[in-house]
Amino acid sequence: MSDTQKSATLAIDGQSFELPIYSPTAGPDVLDIRKLYAQAGVFTYDPGFTSTASCDSTITFIDGDKGVLLHRGYPIDQLAGKSHYLEVCFLLLYGYLPTAAELEDFENTITRHTMVHEQMNNFFRGFRRDAHPMAIIVGVVGAMSAFYHDSTDINDPLQREIASHRLIAKMPTIAAMAYKYTVGQPFVYPRNDLDYASNFLRMCFAVPCEEYEVNPILSRAMDRIFTLHADHEQNASTSTVRLASSSGANPFACIAAGIACLWGPAHGGANQACLEMLKEIGSVDRIPEYIARAKDKNDPFRLMGFGHRVYKNTDPRATVLKQSADEVLELLGVENNPLLAVAKELEQVALNDPYFVEKKLFPNVDFYSGIILEAMGFPTSMFTPIFALSRTVGWISQWKEQFSDPAHKIGRPRQLYLGETLRNYADIEDR
Ligand code: CMC
To answer: Which of 289, 135, 310, 154 is closest to 239 using CA atoms?
Structure first.
């Protein structure tokens, strides 16, 4: 943040207060209100944090009006097209593109942390077979703090580093185990000769009774989905991770908190909800009925996979995924997929409807990811776990960044209290 001389003057009851203004390297200026309460005795009010910067960060930048998403300055379409997930993980974690030797070293480290403690298998067996994989993953990731005691001391940079590697490496294993458990199949151990995405596909789809060969096209599509979901600055789950961490909680507990937040249908759960919606619509002739429902103020229905708090023009991740959906379905020979037909028509209808145009509602990343994942053979319940495993590096990078911030302190929002003022307790016989 640049230390400019800019400031704003706030007048309250005839008294004026100077508030410093900081200019970021990109994005709107930021008003520093940290001393506002101490000096003026007032709070600010911003439910949903629509105008509040909760931290400074150098990781990800979004320009929602222009549909821009940059990781450490690099545009997401370049990363999705030219890079791959583990390289993007390195970039997010360390701030620069690795040399070939650094990348090899990083890939080795991640690959060699993919197994989970054998005793953790018992946790899975405690869940009902019909549990949602997200329910299992929240529990198991939280339980990692009961197993990896040598990487829970947040004040030790080496332990923070090991915890980061463990989480990125083990999330695919845990997500695949959650899936295997819910379909009643044996867990498949990771294999070190496979890349990150291929390994995940194999852990999900291999069975002991026959060989499983990873299709490189699917592995590339999987990797691209991971890459597109890797980080998204201060979204709800990332802010949850930062808030949980601000109290000094251990990394596994913080990431479990992020996973819990991601699960909701307004956030990471939207990909499952979107595909279920497309299935419910079923055919293009029913689209007008659903568009009408989405516009009806008295109907809680929303078009899932549409709209975004920050993107008000286009979601650049959706643009890449739309292209991927076409490629993957064609390569799998399912280009006449009826869901894709419904999705494409729905997108066209919504993009030309004044309601969606005026409210700047565009397809988001979740609109196309479900179609690809379903074509790959994943059940809808695995869509959000795949989002969670992809986002783990983003959560971890943001979590790590907090420790280098001198202004870092426990997160503690204030409130606009509208309840009763002081009143005396009434004995039960007097009520
Ligand atoms: N369908 C119909 N109307 C909508 C939709 C939608 N998907 N999204 C927003 N609106 C309307 C909303 O009713 C409101 O109208 P009004 O001003 O008349 O009250 C207006 O648009 C603004 O909505 P909002 O809820 O105030 O906007 P927000 O920025 O708080 O919410 C959102 C953003 C993503 C939660 C919302 O657009 C939504 O619920 N979308 C569907 C769920 C979804 O696809 N979520 C995935 C987001 S991308 C992946 C991720 O980051 O997790």
So the answer is: 310
